Amino acid sequence: MAEAQIIDGKAFAAGLRERVTAAVAALKADHGKTPGLAVVLVGEDPASQVYVRSKGKQTVEAGMESFEFKMDTSTDQETLLAKVRQLNEDPTVNGILVQLPLPKQIDEQAVLTEINPDKDVDGFHVVNVGRLNTGNPSALVPCTPLGCVLLLRDHFKGSLAGKKAIVLGRSNIVGKPMTTLLVQESCTVTVAHSRTVDLPAEVAQADIVIAAVGKPEMVQGSWLKPGAVVIDVGINRIDKPDGGTRLVGDVDFASASPVASAITPVPGGVGPMTIACLLRNTVTAFCRQNGYPEPDM
Ligand code: NDP
């Protein structure tokens, strides 16, 4: 059987970053102002340190102001909340992102709720969750699901209406907002999770499969409807037989590729879209805060 078309998230994300960079330059020229993104990192989690570094680098490359705040692992909740309040008040900061996960002494929800919803470029504040679920256009949309939907719209040349989609996973960060976005695209959506009975039979119905379970190579090619479009959100580091590690998704790429019509690779699929969408959200937030028209990105 022929191999699936590769949905090249890395190339799409590079194009999106170029459009963001052009929008930032035009905003500077027209208004003399630069969008700013503040990222707060609490603690020493190695993966979070890598993410924060690349967020800062890509923010600067897009011509925006990047503000980075590193706080000690032992930081208490009140100190972090005070930092968030200060950033809420700072007019040079248009987007605020508190890197998750947070150390155990800090209540994640309390911190997310403290962020001004109009600066909440991660889209995790309950106000943005509510706006997204009610179709309110002022919602800031979580970056990873937004990236998936941009890839799907591009692949299907616009309309996803009427497609049967399944979302594997129901987290607040990926699964739930992904489900909402697909409903808004007029897909017929099934949400699966760890208590789903007969997952392969559910997956077999779907034209679009979004895998966000955090289980290395769980979804098998034999589960897929022939011709399905597969978006693999999973990022899992596994041991290689000869030592070292490698990144794999939640989908078994080798068995899925001959059955699917199109598939995102890991790495190089959804991953690069997340930061590109964060930059896009920062420009969107900046324009809304200043009453400027939102650029086409
Ligand atoms: P969570 O652990 O928060 O959620 C996992 C979801 O998968 C849960 O809803 C869980 O069900 C479900 N699940 C777990 N095991 C199974 C199973 N055997 N069958 C069916 N469903 C199952 O993960 P996240 O949503 O945060 O992340 C998911 C994946 O996406 C991870 O690999 C993560 O690394 C990756 N990710 C990638 C990003 C990117 O930038 N590309 C960004 C964010 C995440 P239940 O609710 O019943 O427990």
Descriptive overview:
44% of the residues are buried. This protein folds into two domains: 31-122, Leucine Dehydrogenase, chain A, domain 1 (Rossmann fold); 142-272, NAD(P)-binding Rossmann-like Domain (Rossmann fold, 3-Layer(aba) Sandwich). It has helices at residues 9-31, 46-61, 77-89, 108-114, 126-133, 143-155, 175-184, 199-203, 253-256, 271-290; strands at 5-6, 36-42, 65-71, 95-98, 164-168, 188-192, 208-211, 229-232, 236-239, 245-248, 262-263. The chain is α/β, with parallel strands linked by helices and 297 residues long. The radius of gyration is 19 Å and the shape is globular. The strands form three sheets. The chain has a six-stranded parallel beta sheet with strand order 1-11-8-7-5-6. It has a three-stranded parallel beta sheet with strand order 3-2-4, with helices on both faces. It has a two-stranded antiparallel ribbon with strand order 9-10.
